[in-house]
Amino acid sequence: MRIGFLSLPLSGHLNPMTALARKLQARGNEVVFISVPDAEAAVRAANLEFVPFCEEEYPLGSIAENWSSVAKLHGEEVVRHSSRELLPGIIKAAFDHLPAKIAETGVEALVFDKILLLPGTCGDEHGHSLRGCVGCAARRLFRIYTGVPFQLAA
C-alpha cells in the first residue's frame, strides 16, 4: 500500500510522524511524506520519500519566520494563537493543493497530524481513491477551538 503522511512542519509534529512512517515502511508499505519545503530535511533524514507542496505559499524558511511568534507564548495561548493566526493559512494552502498531490503521488491512504483535519479530502469529489470526508469535522473543531466559523477564502 502507498501511504501518504501529512504533518505540520515542526519538530514536535514531524518526529513522531516520521517514526510512524518508518515503522510502516519497515512493514513493507511504500511511504511518501507530503509537506511544505521546510519539512524536507527532517523527512529525508528519516530516509523517507518527500514530495513538496504549497511551495508558493510556504517557501523554504517561511515556517521559522511565520511561526516564531509561538516561541514567546505558553499553554493555551499557543493553541489560541496558532488556531487563529497560523493554521488557517496552512490549512487553506493544503486544501488548495492536497487533492492534486494525492492524485499525483498515487497515495491510497493518508495519515495526517490530528491538528490538520483538512477539508477537501473526500474521495470521489476530487477524483482520488480516499474515502471519508473530514471537512465537516474540521469545521466543527475549528469553531470549537477558535469560537469562529471556519471558512476558506474564495
Written account of the structure:
- It is a single chain.
- The chain is globular.
- The chain has a single domain, classed as Rossmann fold, CATH 3.40.50.
- It is of the alpha/beta class.
- The termini are far apart.
- It has a 4-stranded parallel β-sheet, sandwiched between helices.
- Helices cover 45% and strands 12% of the residues.
In a few lines, what is going on in this structure?
The protein is an alpha/beta fold and 154 residues long. It has five helices and four strands; from the N terminus they run βαβαβααβα. Strands 3-2-1-4 form a four-stranded parallel β-sheet, sandwiched between helices.
Euclidean distance between termini CA atoms: 35 Å
What is the H-and-E element order?
A: EHEHEHHEH
Shape: globular
Radius of gyration: 15 Å
CATH superfamily: Glycogen Phosphorylase B
Poorly predicted ranges: 118-154
Number of strands: 4
Structural class determined from secondary elements: alpha/beta
| CATH topology heading | Rossmann fold
- Beta-strand portion reads 5-15%
Report the total helices.
Answer: 5
Which architecture would the CATH scheme give at its second level? 3-Layer(aba) Sandwich
- The domain count comes to 1
What is the subunit arrangement here? single chain
Give the mean pLDDT: 76
